[in-house]
Please model this.
Amino acid sequence: MKRTLSISLVLLLTACGGASDDGGGEADTTSTAGDETPRQPITVETGSIEAALAGAQRTDEERARDAFRHPAETLEFFGLEPSMTVVEMGPGGGWYTAVLAPVLRDHGTLIVATSDPEESQYARRLYDRLDAAPEVFDQVERRLFTFPEHPSLGEPGSADMVVTFRSTHGWINGGHAQDIYQAMFDVLRPGGVLGVVQHRADEGADPTETSRQGYVPEAYVVELATNAGFVLEESSEINANADDDHDHPEGVWTLPPSLRLGDTDRAQWEAIGESDRMTLRFRKPAEDAAEAE
Model:
């Protein structure tokens, strides 16, 4: 059953963080010390992807990205259910966290795997955002995950789903991609799902080179997951962009929302839109299948 929450709208500045690539930050809508105007309560329905997407816990800037990131279609493709235990890898400023948290709040569990907020400004901003709206985010569990210092995502077999959005290139750059895919495999129960969205490089390209530009060949992501023990269940073109040729002066960060070149050729990059992305659903084999092998 869906539950309606009444909350005071408090939204903090968010930005990309960790290994993910959320792009530029949103406007800071927190009140100033001299603002005595009470905030009007809002309502947010839980348990529904559509209701979460419409909720006021999201900023206008976040909603503007929906046309490129297709969150409803992506989460439905992954098979998200309100009763699941879900680990979100490298959530950055919380773009997907703001969708996942209301869906899972009443009957499931959302765990955000982040860097140390004492060392990462992005993790600190995410934590501040969660603290600012407890009626939405107070059930979100925070898990320190840095490799190799803190390599565990939780008890083995304790999660139903792990999701990672635009993070694999960072793990490759850090030299720990295979270890992190193994950690994601280990935390999932048999039959659990890994959902991956990643900027896509040309097939056959060298991932150690393209990852510096934010892109990874799809076959290499499949290889990382397969080596960890996953089975590729299905791929989708939900987040594909044929206008992105994967070759830009500042890599993927040339494109929206980062637009790292500022006003230089801005119309050209905005016309392309956000990057071409693979969307992959992997599954950890069920126990009987593993035993049969």
About this structure: Strands lie at 4-8, 41-45, 85-89, 109-114, 141-144, 159-165, 188-201, 216-217, 231-236, 277-283. Residues 121-132 form the longest helix (12 residues).
